[in-house]
Amino acid sequence: MKILVFLVLLSVIGMGTVFAEPVTTQIISDEKILVVDEQIMIMTDISNNQDVQQNFAYITQVKNNDGVVISLSWLTGSLSPRQTFSPTQSWIPTESGVFHIQIFVWEGIDNPDALSPPLSMTVNVSEQKF
What we know:
The protein is mostly beta strands.
């Protein structure tokens, strides 16, 4: 199984404000190649550095190279003061190509106030292992 880990530290530093560190990407697998029909996990570390609880929606969107959304998933939750959480969403590519992954952290699915600027990365998926 391939695992793509998309690591970024998001820290809530004021009510409704999230600070994002530079994005680093790490592919953990034997061959380090993303392949069609193998699961990819997209993970982001988020931290609430406030003294109050913070609700959030973690949204993962994958677009193909034509800009068409081919995967959209989310989870919602709440972070206690000073709590850190690593939400993860999976995606299984069904075709090869270049894909653009975006992560959004909002106050809620029905409240799209951004807690962070959108995060993004591009990945290449191969038809077969080399």
